[in-house]
Design a protein that fits this description.
The protein is of the alpha/beta class. It has six helices and eight strands; from the N terminus they run βββαβααββαβαβα. Bound molecules: zinc ion (ZN). It comes from Paenibacillus brasilensis.
Length: 241
């Protein structure tokens, strides 16, 4: 397995590093992005941890390719804000339509270049979906009819089996969100597209752990990681540099 770092938007104020881990054999491509919203820290830390695990060869990609953008919106991240405009409303809404923001355009071009079969977008949200079906905290979201849906249900089942507190259980949500990176990946690239939302009010360490586990379950579903290769016991870094 090889891990390489690249720069998206090199020379621009919004430039951000991304990473590609390539397995020994060809196979599906998976793209993982975090930090489309700059203050959703646990999702960002989980993506960074994923890169760290790959670099340390603790997580092994046996086939295919994994593309990770840990902090999409660097400017919003530096200010710890969601971002203005909301980047997750600026992705292309239909084929042949450009993104309405240069940063989302660059992220989408990267996705188009690698044609991922799977697209995972990591976020954080308010509330616990188990207690209130109108909130998005602790949900995994896909688009109606998306081929990822059966895998989403399996991953949720696995996660909830390991989460003792029932209030923190994950639930599936199916929704169209035009202009979001997930809906663009689903509708324009035909990817199995998923958004992961942890709940803000849980301890950061727990949220990072949930993201990390969910991503690895999907990597296994995609065939990039062998069933016994999932690094679920990851010790997570919670201190912001
Ligand atoms: Zn978000």
């Amino acid at each position: 397995m090889q891990v390489k770092q690249y720069m998206l938007g090199k020379g621009y104020s919004w430039a951000t590093p991304y990473y590609i881990a390539t397995g020994e054999q060809g196979g599906p491509h998976v793209m993982v992005v975090a930090g489309i919203h700059g203050k959703e820290i646990a999702s960002i830390r989980a993506a960074e941890k994923l890169v760290e695990l790959l670099n340390q060869q603790k997580l092994h990609i046996s086939q295919g390719k994994l593309i990770i953008v840990p902090i999409v919106n660097q400017e919003a991240y530096r200010k710890r804000i969601r971002g203005v405009p909301d980047l997750n409303r600026t992705f292309p809404r239909k084929k042949k339509q450009a993104a309405s923001n240069r940063l989302s355009a660059a992220v989408f071009e990267l996705a188009q270049k690698h044609q991922p079969e799977w697209y995972l977008d990591l976020h954080e949200a308010n509330g616990l979906s188990q207690k209130d079906n109108k909130v998005l905290g602790q949900t995994i979201i896909s688009n109606s009819g998306n081929p990822a849906v059966p895998a989403v249900r399996r991953v949720i089942k696995l996660m909830n089996r390991s989460i003792k507190l029932q209030d923190q259980h994950f639930n599936i949500r199916l929704r169209e969100l035009s202009g979001s990176s997930r809906t663009a990946a689903a509708r324009i690239l035909g990817a199995r597209a998923v958004t992961v939302e942890t709940c803000w009010s849980l301890p950061k360490k727990v949220r990072i752990k949930y993201h990390l586990e969910i991503v690895q379950h999907f990597l296994r579903e995609a065939g990039l990681v062998k069933a016994n290769g999932v690094y679920l016991a990851a010790k997570v870094r919670t201190v912001t540099p």
